Cytochrome P450 (Macrophomina phaseolina), 168 residues
Amino acid sequence: MQSARNFFYNSPLFSPKSKLGVHIVQLVLIVSAVVLTFVRMTMNVPRTRANTMALSMGAKSLIVIAYELLTEHVARFRKWKSLKAYAILNCLEVVFWAAVMFMVFRANMNSCTGISCALSWVVVILAAILHMLAFQTAVVAICEFRYFRRNGVTRDEEKEAESEMERV
């Protein structure tokens, strides 16, 4: 158990510094999935719950990422920063993108024709990638929350303090 914890805390893949880059990639993929879903819905195909869910989960994810980025990087919004909220929201993201992937996949298996079918499969692939990225951000958020609860500082703050001590 200790080796798994050390892996998550010490791996560069789960470093808090990787959050910003992952969030930017997520934003690009979410906007792509929403645009493709919207384009597919404007075609002459029946509207399904899968399409509606892809749109709503995309909008929700954009709001969640905006909350995280604003409270992390804008001083004016820092008072609403909550590592516990980050952990909860990112864990929900994992489940929601898995649901989008499953529902669109299932809708494609039932009926899928033409260009709208290709767009749907691209949305399935984007949802799968977003699911994996959400897992990564969830692990980072959980590690950050648990570390803060145990030590009273985030991993970034502790590393900054250590580097300042080395300079002195």
